[in-house]
UniProtKB/TrEMBL annotation:
Species of provenance: Corynebacterium deserti GIMN1.010
InterPro entries reported in the protein's UniProt record: DUF2848 (IPR021269)
Protein's name in the database: DUF2848 domain-containing protein
One Pfam family from the record: DUF2848
Lineage of source species: Bacteria, Bacillati, Actinomycetota, Actinomycetes, Mycobacteriales
């Protein structure tokens, strides 16, 4: 939904059954954000062989159009070479509360070879409709598992602890320095390594965060190719 100012308004269910609302004014996607930056550099070299331009610095941070933060069950794409990415996301709601949820940064892989920032603005960031208060889980990130799966058979394509990525505290400090640790901000974490075997260019994507106390939150969506253009 959107408010009168044209901003997307997202609502999240919290563990106690209450809800939290955020009017999305800033959307940021982190990239190359693995905690082991040597592995990140090796991954950048691999991507360079596929034609993806290397970032000028790591970790990277890409501003994204705020309307692309969506809670949806369907993503429409222009061609078959797009895929999701399992990520966690920080939400700063309209009351200034900091929350954690799971998200998929759906990315145009063809466009990525021309510009990573461009590819981030080609499709939605799909977020769960549930979230956890960040203050209540900040001491157990090691125990929270991030997963991604693809296709109608839900083949596992990504799995790692949250701590494989730079932790929320790192990015909250970055937001503070940028003057963006304020209501209306959503930041996605960057993603974890994909497993070889499953086809990332699948017709469905799903992502989840699993916590031993709060359970599992997830987001799933179908990927639908648009009809052919005329002209």
């Amino acid at each position: 939904m959107s408010n009168n100012a044209g901003f997307n308004v997202l609502t999240f269910e919290l563990p106690d059954g209450s809800t939290s609302t955020v009017t999305v004014k800033r959307l940021l996607n982190a990239g190359y954000a693995g905690k082991n930056q040597e592995e990140v550099r090796a991954h950048i070299d691999e991507l360079a062989e596929l034609g993806v331009p290397a970032p000028t610095t790591t970790p990277a941070l890409y501003p994204v159009s705020p309307y692309l933060a969506q809670q949806t069950s369907q993503v429409q794409v222009q061609h078959s070479e797009t895929s999701g990415e399992s990520e966690w996301a920080i939400i700063i709601d309209d009351n200034g509360n900091e929350l954690l949820t799971v998200a998929s940064d759906h990315t145009d892989r063809k466009l990525e070879t021309l510009g990573v920032a461009w590819s981030k603005n080609a499709s939605p960031d799909v977020l769960s409709n549930k979230a956890w208060p960040l203050s209540e889980i900040k001491n157990r990130f090691d125990n929270i598992i991030l997963r991604g799966w693809v296709g109608q058979n839900r083949d596992l394509i990504q799995e790692a602890p949250m701590t494989a990525l730079l932790e929320p505290t790192y990015w909250l400090n970055v937001l503070e320095e940028r003057g963006e640790r304020i209501p209306g901000t959503i930041l996605l974490s960057g993603t974890i390594t994909m497993k070889t075997g499953p086809n990332q260019f699948a017709d469905a994507w799903g992502v989840s965060l699993e916590d031993p106390e709060f359970g599992t939150i997830s987001a799933e969506y179908q990927v639908e190719k648009m009809s052919q253009p005329i002209g």
